[in-house]
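Q: What does the predicted 3D structure of Thiamine diphosphokinase look like?
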Amino acid sequence: MKSAVIICNGDFPRKEYPRYLIREADYIICCDAALQTYLKHCDGIFGKERIPDAVIGDMDSLPVSLQKKYSSIIIRDTDQETNDQTKAVKLALTRFRDISSIHILGAVGKRAEHTIGNLSLLMEYAREYDLEDMGISVDSVYDYGTAFALTDSAELHCGKDRKISIISPDNTLTIKSEGLVWPTDKVVFDNLWKATLNRASEDVVKLEFSHKSIALILLD
């Protein structure tokens, strides 16, 4: 199966792993002005220019010169009820039927509200598209970590001493845990910080949800 990478217009990755994901991607989608940033880094990643497969957004921040030059791959979507990252995820799921993974890069940085919004949307994608049944993983990768969503109990093969945070907007959810330094069994998810800044005490962390819900996992 193949992979798709979505480039958002936050901090472009400097470290090798996220840049490796770009280099190995079968499909690349840029969000609006992220095209400009992506093109600046192509030579350092590929040794040449690699044209993305699509550029999507309302085109309010992409220079007109680039809109004209890359008009054949631009998809103008002026829907103001959703953001460009979500538009790109929908495009990847509908256009590239042979993918098994979507990696979102550049979703964090520059503005705190964009970071919070983009990462929280991972939970919406997991719930709305039932990604597990589709056999597609979606994560956000940045220089200092990876974020992904869960909708039910799971085992995380993350490695001992890995830093891990759990965030959920569902204050009725209880998550029993094994393999964490600070168990989450009694955590009430009534604020975003409540199960953050934890650490794995075992190679495998087991999380048992009291019911199907949504939670965001952040690993360093």
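A (community wiki): The structure tokens above were generated from the sequence. The chain has a mean pLDDT of 95. The helical segments are 16-24, 34-46, 64-69, 84-95, 112-129, 131-134.
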